[in-house]
Amino acid sequence: MKSRHPARLNTPLETERDQINQNIGAVHDFYTREEQKISRSQRILERVSRLVGQPAFIGIILLFVALWVLANAGLRQFGMAAFDPAPFFWLQGIIGLGALLTATAVLTKQNRLARLAEQRAHLDLKVTLLTEQKAAKLIDLMEELRRDLPNVKNREDPEAAALQHSMNPGRVLAALDEGAESEPKKDPADGK
Fold first, then answer.
1. Inter-residue contact 109 to 44 (CB < 8 Å)
2. For 112-127, how does the pLDDT look when each residue is reduced to its tens digit (9 = 90+)?
3. Which among 64, 95, 70 is positioned nearest to 83, based on CA atoms?
4. What backbone phi and psi angles, to 5 degrees, belong to 97?
């Protein structure tokens, strides 16, 4: 049985919206997959890292230190033995342990974000190489069309001829490596 309505073709605007939605969906799926890979302990560390990263956390630490010192001074004023007399070795230990835990939480999160950034950079490289290949193919097709059109004068264009061919990624990397090796080394002591 034949449908009464012929198949409707998408307009260019609808096609563009579909492509945009597909790209947004792919990016969203990527981040969702990465979020699902995070372990429970990593999530806890990242919550701690977010808490420690708040400006109010500095106030909490300063308040804790002030209360610790005041409590020790108050106990001495009332003739009792201070639980951590000056120079406050217990307080120094607690602050040092807190700093160690904070640094560990921050570094753990930075490592995860660095891996994510590396994945994004790798994807960017793939897209860039694919775009370069497509551009080379388009130049090739345009040059072919130019040669085939009877009313267009056939002329040699060495730049277009060179751009018709996709770059070899291996050669580009080798050239980058050679360029990095030939650059003069900077001496950190010179500041140049």
1. no
2. 899 989 988 988 888 8
3. 70
4. -65, -40
- Judge whether 136 and 163 are in contact, CB under 8 Å: yes
Calpha distance 91→121 (Å, rounded) = 44
Give residue 103's Cα distance to chain centre. 20
Gyration radius of the chain's alpha carbons: 32
What domain count does the chain have? 1
Full-model pTM: 0.59
Neighbouring residues of 83: CB distance < 8 A, sequence distance ≥ 6? 71, 72, 75, 90
User: Which structural domain, as residue segments, surrounds residue 94?
Assistant: 40-180
Residue 19 lies in a domain: no
Residue 168 burial class via C-beta count within 10 angstroms: exposed 0-12, middle 13-18, buried 19 and up:
exposed
